[in-house]
Amino acid sequence: MGGFKDPGYLERKSAATDARKAALEKFRAKNAANDPAAAERQASRQAVSIARDARAVARKAAKAAHEIEVAQEAVRARELAEQAERDAAARAKLESAEKATREYAEQADRKAARDARYAARKARK
Q1: Radius of gyration of the chain measured on its C-alpha atoms
Q2: What is the tens place of the pLDDT at every residue in 50-108?
Q3: pTM to 2 decimals?
Q4: Contact 32/38 with Cβ under 8 angstroms?
């Protein structure tokens, strides 16, 4: 075998731990609390988050208003349909009464004509 030596488990583990610590230190140094750029980025993120939440609330309010409007329109449509049904029933009742009146008048006219013919026959005799 060559001169290459595989690092043992403990060496690999300590190297990984050291790398994690170095990365954490680098992150902490970059995002230090006294760093004005970091504070500015945080404030910017917070402002964006607040604006996003405000837009979501506005969308929910608009959706609720639209649903209320749709419900009110459905109620109006149902009321109009019911009124149309009542009007149609009243019209049908009126037409039925007019038809009955016409038929009664026609019957009375036929009876009067028949009675007149009968009377004329009696008068000729």
Answers
A1: 48
A2: 999 999 999 999 999 999 999 999 999 999 999 999 999 999 999 999 999 999 999 99
A3: 0.45
A4: yes
Distance of CA 8 to the CA centre of its chain: 65
HSE of 109, CA atoms in CB hemisphere, 13 A: 6
Amino acid of residue 44:
S
Distance CA 125, CA 120 (A): 9
| CB contact set of 15 (below 8 Å; sequence gap of 6+) | 7
Residue 14: C-alpha distances to residues 5, 20, 26, 28 (Å) = 17, 10, 18, 21
Query: What does the block give as tokens for 73?
Result: 């329109």
61, amino acid identity: A
Distance CA 83, CA 75 (A): 12
Tokens coding 117: 């013919």
